[in-house]
Model the fold of this input.
Amino acid sequence: MLTFPPILALLTSCAPPPEPPAPPAEPSTTLGMPLPAAWPSRAATLQRLETPPPTRALRIAIDPGHGVGSNSGNSSCLCIDEQDHNLRVAQHLAQSLEAQGQHPTQLTRSDNRGPAYSTRITTAQQGAADLLISLHSDARGEQHHWLPSPDATCSWNDGNPGFSVLWSDEAEPALAEARLTLAAALAARLAEAGFLAYDGHEYQGIYEGHPDHPGVFLDRHEPRKRVRMLRRPTMPSVIIETHNAWDRLEEPRWQEEATLDAFDAAVLTALADWAR
Done:
């Protein structure tokens, strides 16, 4: 007597083998850092603004923040000390200003051995600087950590990106107004070049945002803690916080020459606006 296998078993034996499972997706990384699978765009493509000729020459003091004693500033998500970032950006900006041929510049420090902030201010004033720009980066938000090597731990936080320009109204009215107009010109041109203006979320109680100038913040520390570089110079002075050094998108961008070029062009254009 002939027997036949069940129809279901026969059909199953003739079916093609199942597709092998897809390999797991490689995690997104930037310079070795783990990133979310879908990374939101945080800012427009950076561009170099076309710098108009200045109406007058400005003597400019550029202060690379920190860099004295143990005051090295923050450590970025790439484990780069803020003092080194500030000096690199300041030297690049000074070279751009000198190449433009109209604005003589003075760096308040050239290495990580100082001088103190009070000496930097005095030097800028003795050099008859027309303005002082102090360069920094921020470290904002709750710290998360990643380990690039067994011997290093770097901090990151992606929730607070963007630049800020800080100023102080602690001065006679004409000087305070000059500080504000300088800060506003810098913030406007940085935004035009594609840099993102910080929304001030982490500044509650220490800096006050300006309603008409995104990215511009007034020093609102209690009086004994107010920022010396903003209130002490006798010429207009501001601090530019270039970005959030813990942000895993912003920090790698600041290692690129194109970012420095776009930043320099924005500052040059803002100075031309302010000098009119």
About this structure: The helical segments are 7-14, 82-100, 117-126, 173-192, 228-231, 250-253, 257-275. Residues 1-15, 20-28 have pLDDT under 50 and may be disordered. Residues 41 and 249 are 9 Å apart (CA to CA).
